[in-house]
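Quarterly update from the structural biology core.
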Amino acid sequence: MVNFNGTIVDNETLITLNNRGYAYGDALFETVKSVHGKLLFWEDHYFRLMASMRIMRMDIPMNFTLEFLESQILKTLESNELLNQPARIKLTVHRNEGGLYLPDTNHVEFVISVKPLETDLYLFNTGDYEVDLFKDYYLSPSLLSTLKTNNKALNVVGSIFANENKLNNCLVLNTDKHVVEALNGNVFLIKGNSIKTPPITDGCLKGIMRKQIMELVKKSPEYQLEEASISPFELQKADEIFISNVIVGIQSVTKYRKKMFKQEIAKDLLKKLNVTVRLS
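Predicted structure, tokenized:
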């Protein structure tokens, strides 16, 4: 069952060919993790969505409050019997049908879908996790590239490339040939006690988990945070590399080409993250 504009409907209900999210990628989405009815980092998700809607020049309905959208998510979880277990939530906002590239209206609709997850807290994956650069296409850094829109062609083609080459993930480059992010999350590089991540101006997603990790690092006197461009040459000099998103938390990279990486600091940060989740 999915939530379409506040009404729970059968998840087999199809959108029309004129849906602007389908026809033009004229849609935004947020992926949220819930644990027994608690939406993790919900305020950050909400305010990112509101800011993204403004950038996309979508009208924000008067009832699109923090509390209203939270209640609609909880309603969807309950209808799918997922209110008392961990779940993955996708909240999509698309512009109403009508028009070609130029829309007839800036009014919006929303869809909420949910799926069960296996674990409450974030677990550290100790298995092999190999990445490489995806160089077939480059990300053009702009304000639009920092948004979670339905325009994810690069991520789709990159994921197919990774699968064909037996990789777990790929790192994306921007047009300046800087490492920007992974196909499914933000990237962090560790050298000594310095933890480095690309700046938003390089075009990376303004990730919710990215923000949480940066705040954790700032509060940890043993680490130093650096927000700066990353050259591909720095990857093989790093002690550790990890990828972040709100579903897995922290995914440590074990191999990039011939270089094998440690995982100690990533493990420590994941412990700190789980403490934050418990206390929030």
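The longest helix spans residues 264-279.
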